[in-house]
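Bumping with the actual sequence this time:
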Amino acid sequence: MFPMRWAWLATFAIGCGHPSAPATTTAGPQVQAAPSEAGIDAARLLEDDLPKLAERAVKLYQDWQRAFSEAGTDCAAATTRMNALADANADLIAANQRLVHAGHDKIKAARVELDKHSAEVDPAAQAIIQGPTMSACKGDPAFNKALDRLAGEG
């Protein structure tokens, strides 16, 4: 099960990053969609904005690398930080899952966009995979559950 995460980590960056900025409002009557509808609409827009997805992927990888660097080999701290990243990026994780199922052409276009940021993403991903946190915590069930959440599997 753990080796699947290595493959996932390489492709996950297609659709992840930091949370969206809050929406601005205008004067006049406002109609709000139900929370579930609003979240789905926002994620759909995000998965159709591949440059934004790539930028946000860079941010997520940098945040994730920083979280692991700060946690070191403290699996509980790393788990807490990954769960916080998953919470903050729930819309992106959902958009990524839909993007993965969107078809070959869309996935290919997303990878092309992400490749523009490989100089930023690759070192962060390598530090995440090869760092002491992953090595020390790979057998920790809570850590693996948090990792699954980031992968959109949990």
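The tokens above came from a reply further down the thread. The chain is about 75% helix and 0% strand.
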